[in-house]
Design a protein that fits this description.
A six-stranded parallel sheet has the order 5-4-1-6-7-8, sandwiched between helices. The longest helix has 20 residues, at 68-87. The chain has two domains: 6-18 and 92-227, Rossmann fold (3-Layer(aba) Sandwich), CATH 3.40.50; 21-87. It has helices spanning 21-32, 42-51, 57-65, 68-87, 97-106, 119-129, 152-160, 176-184, 200-206, 218-227; strands spanning 6-10, 16-17, 92-93, 110-114, 137-139, 169-173, 189-193, 210-212. The radius of gyration is 17 Å and the shape is globular. By secondary structure, the protein is α/β, with parallel strands linked by helices. Strand 7, helix 9 and strand 8 form a beta-alpha-beta unit. Pfam families: Hydrolase. InterPro entries: HAD-like_hydrolase_sf, HAD-like_sf, HAD_sf, PhnX-like. This is Phosphonatase-like hydrolase.
């Protein structure tokens, strides 16, 4: 029998509807680094951003631009652009996400929200949704905690919330990067959801233990794991 102590949930695409906000912010960011939509490099860069959804954004810009100053400039513009979209009301929760989180916590399961965004952007999302007290903890890359695909965020949450065994962690995200990160952290359940950037085949290929229509289906999975 497996008892889930902690559920680590991604935000954009998993608990928060993306609706193209990341791609819009990327276009503004890459323009700040000197690459317009008409630039022959733009298409390949855009494809790479889609392939690396879920990863820390500064890591993505470093890989794309190969120059730290340009990467930092693009990352700052990305965070600013995304934050403005959020502040304008262009974000909303995935249907059932809030109820799922509240239900898990009522059953004694700790819940953390993690993201590939910078802490300021995560706070903007939490502000816009009124979610600051929804989960036990919200964490973003920074202060020595590397973003995805490294397992740091999950392991840092486990340490902060005093999880006894990483196998008692469930990780949920909408990208292969989320899945690979959960597996690298040793989580017992690593579920992909179909509400974001990836399809079932990609999530299964990354090694997801479950592929769910949405995060709302997670409680049933956890209940099944407890009874098995």
């Amino acid at each position: 029998m497996v008892t889930t102590e902690l559920v680590v949930l991604d935000m954009a695409g998993t608990t928060v509807a993306d609706d193209g906000l990341v791609e819009r912010a990327f276009t503004a960011a890459i323009a700040a680094a000197g690459v317009s939509e008409e630039d022959e490099r733009y298409g390949g860069m855009f494809d790479y951003v889609r392939e690396t959804m879920g990863q820390s954004k500064i890591t993505v810009f470093r890989a794309l631009l190969g120059d730290e100053d340009l990467a930092q400039r693009a990352n700052a513009e990305f965070e600013g652009s995304y934050g403005r979209l959020v502040a304008a009301g262009e974000c909303k929760p995935i249907p059932g996400a809030e109820e799922t989180i509240r239900g898990l916590r009522e059953k004694g399961v700790r819940v953390a929200l993690t993201t590939g965004f910078a802490p300021t952007t995560q706070r903007a999302l939490l502000d816009a949704l009124g979610w600051h007290d929804l989960a036990d903890l919200a964490l973003a890359p920074g202060d020595g905690v590397r973003g995805r695909p490294y397992p740091d965020l999950i392991l840092a949450v486990a340490l902060k919330l005093k999880v006894a065994d990483v196998r008692n962690i469930a990780v949920v995200g909408d990208t292969p990067t989320d899945v690979r990160t959960g597996l690298a952290a040793g989580a017992g359940i690593v579920a992909g959801v179909l509400t974001g950037a990836s399809n079932r085949a990609d999530l299964e290929a990354a090694g997801a233990t479950h592929v769910l229509d949405s995060v709302s289906a997670l409680p049933a999975v956890l209940e099944g794991a407890t009874q098995s």
